[in-house]
Design brief:
The protein is an alpha/beta fold. Helix 4 packs across helix 5, helix 4 packs across helix 6 and helix 13 packs antiparallel against helix 14.
Length: 452
């Protein structure tokens, strides 16, 4: 089930260990939770004993037992990341990735804006376990409230708590790929915020050529609670293969769109109910964001929000995006619009991304306006096969997945557009959120609403 009560303000009472909310417990209605409130709610972070070898840190063992997976989209085991960094000889750097370039997600900026101390706890605990030199919090330059809250929280901790491991905030340009792991490393080292070719991997040589742990802001928040309550507590929720809870950004035709905390294995129907129910017919759902997959509306009533279940539909929760498309929207126009944006987000480093995504976007636009050749869908599939798996980073693969899943799920609508051109719904306001373009307001945006 999902935790769905709107938070009126901090609640400093004990909660049953199996209950939701976990991450969003006590979230303030406005502003950020201060350090005193944070410690009253969660208690002091546990001291990290110094093991004979950093790879034997008790925290790494806890994370391994908890089976915590990264919440940035890749679902990589967090303990494996820490152990890889711990095996390096030099003192590590810890990077909290709250850049959140996914336009359909608000969970990380929510954590930084409202609960920065929980995220910082995770970063500091990881740094202590790794003998870390520094903690860097990377926030998108458009998320000023989160950057300000993080900076104020760091200053508050410096005054009232241990500051043996310095922390700082780095603003990252708001491009889709700027939050990718190697792009962050490049930017923090004075280069462009775009993915780089590997090796070396960040755990070998990252910021300042030091071994570097890069993880998503939500991942560090979970780490902070696992360190306090243990692996068994964490696994009280979720499924055997995907334990714990997760933050999801729900948008589309629901009464209360926003950020929710769910238990893995909860039904999509329970999440929609928690958001006050649907306000319109739901044509389909996009899971995982703009590198994710569409699922047709006729199966949504039985959909379970765990990667094990979603795999049967060719989907995953990824960065925690659940985007519902209403029956009033034109899925062909929406796909063409996002495909064009995805092509423009190329970092310009390889042909499959620069030329392949542009060709795919052009083919979708041709279909949308009725100028398609009889074999237009076959052309899209062929272009997708030429692009997939051949890029310098994962961006081309994600874009192909988004486009081809749309063509499959909305096959009837694409066929109708190919024959007859634009439909009446094409002129309606866009529903899929994209960032502002060239100083103009985006046609579709997400509300800054959080539910705990």
């Amino acid at each position: 089930m999902s935790s769905c009560v709107e938070a009126p303000g901090p609640t400093l009472t004990a909660r049953p260990p199996e209950a939701l909310p976990r991450l969003l417990a006590g979230i303030p209605a406005h502003g950020a939770m201060g350090l005193a409130q944070h410690l009253a709610l969660h208690g002091e972070p546990p001291a990290q004993p110094t093991p004979r070898a950093r790879s034997e840190s008790p925290l790494i063992g806890q994370l391994e037992d908890a089976r915590l997976l990264g919440r940035g989209g890749g679902a990589f085991p967090t303990a494996h990341k820490l152990r890889a960094v711990a095996s390096a000889r030099r003192r590590a750097v810890v990077v909290i990735n709250a850049a959140e370039g996914e336009p359909a997600s608000r969970k990380d900026r929510t954590l930084m804006r409202s609960l920065p101390h929980l995220v910082l706890d995770g970063g500091q605990l990881a740094a202590a376990a790794l003998g870390g030199k520094e903690v860097i919090v990377c926030v998108c330059d458009s998320a000023r409230a989160g950057a300000r809250a993080a900076a104020e929280a760091i200053a508050e901790r410096r005054e009232l708590a241990d500051a043996s491991r310095p922390a700082r905030v780095a603003l990252v340009q708001g491009r889709y790929l700027a939050g990718q792991e190697s792009a962050l490393i490049s930017y923090l080292n004075g280069g462009a915020a775009r993915p780089t070719f590997t090796p070396p991997l960040p755990f070998e040589q990252g910021v300042g050529r030091r071994p570097t742990l890069v993880s998503n802001a939500e991942t560090f928040a979970h780490l902070a609670l696992i360190a306090r309550h243990g692996a068994d507590w964490f696994r009280l929720l979720g499924t055997p293969s995907q334990p714990g809870s997760a933050l999801v950004t729900l948008s589309g035709p629901v009464a209360r769109p926003g950020v929710y905390e769910i238990e893995y294995g909860a039904s999509l129907a329970s999440l929609i109910d928690a958001a006050g129910g649907a306000t319109n017919g739901v044509r389909a759902a996009l899971l995982g964001g703009y590198a994710g997959s569409w699922i047709a509306g006729d199966v949504l009533a039985t959909l379970t929000l765990s990667d094990e279940h979603l795999a049967g539909h060719g989907a995953a929760l990824g960065a925690g995006v659940v985007l519902l498309l209403s029956e009033d929207a034109c899925p062909v126009a929406e796909t063409a619009r996002v495909a064009t944006w995805l092509a423009a987000q190329s970092s310009g480093q390889c042909g499959p991304c620069v030329f392949g995504l542009e060709a795919l976007a052009a083919a979708v636009a041709t279909l949308a306006h009725g100028g398609a050749l009889p074999a237009a869908r076959q052309r899209l599939a062929r272009l997708g096969s030429l692009v997939r798996g051949r890029g310098a980073c994962a961006h081309p693969d994600g874009a192909v997945k988004f486009i081809l899943s749309a063509v499959e799920v909305f096959a009837a609508e694409f066929a109708d557009h190919a024959r007859h051109g634009s439909c009446e719904a094409c002129t309606r306001p866009a529903e899929l959120p994209l960032p502002a373009v060239a100083g103009r307001a985006a046609r579709a945006s997400l509300p800054e609403v959080v539910h705990s």
